[in-house]
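Checked the freezer inventory, then went back to the computational side. Two predictions to log before the end of the day. The first one is the construct we discussed on Monday; recording sequence and tokens without edits.
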Amino acid sequence: MVQHNAKIDRSQKGKVILKLILQTDILEIILTEDKPNEIKTVFNKLILHLKNGLFSFNLEDSNEDLYHYVCKEYIKQLNTDINSTYKELESNDLLNQPENTSV
């Protein structure tokens, strides 16, 4: 299983963002705004990435503030959901097939 990082970006005044860092994509969830359609878009992109193989996130954050603890629990639940969604995709034969590299 591939391990990806998640970071909390507090650098923008009044805006805190949870960044889910994938190999080819950085997905952002703005924690200080209520935008459910943007969150749906992030989850749809996660499912597309998940079709290529199972992964999980590890929170990299040294500030022990409220955002740290909320994101820690969020990532824990997200990893559980990713695992169960992957199993469902697998059981329904919806995973992308690896390209055959043999000649």
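The second is the one RB wanted added to the comparison set:
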Amino acid sequence: MMDENNPQINPVDSCINILNVLLASLTIFERNVKIGHWAYKDTDFVDIHPWLDEIHDDICESIDTVAEEIRKADRFPDADLATCLGKSLVAPVTGAEPFSKAKTFAMLQVGLFNIRKIADDLSTMADENKFWTIQDLANDILKKTNHHLYFVKNTVVEPNISRAD
């Protein structure tokens, strides 16, 4: 079965492409969260530090699940860092200076929103093509991102780090 929008690309290839963009974005976001975790400097450090570990753990679990789903399709993940940097919809951050609460929450908000958008697109495509395990994977990532965004979304009004439209 071919993709109606592009007869050259079949739905499996389209899903694999989105999975690889999701994998790249999760990989860069994982580094960003860990950098923010290491560089966080604010009065509520004791409260925020373990929560950043929780986000990091969820992202690492999602990375593994996405890569395994790509392998189930007898493909190999585009997982080297150079490829991830090129495909990611999440911009990398640097840890060369302390992360304030505002900077940390802006980074989290933008990263989580971008990952949520990719996972939502993947869920829709998987649903349309009856790729149920991929849809379950995407919905699980949506659940995790929404869980973390619940805490983040009202903290930062204007994010200053962006990559995706």
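For RB: The longest helix spans residues 11-39. The chain has one domain: 11-152. Let me know if you want it refolded.
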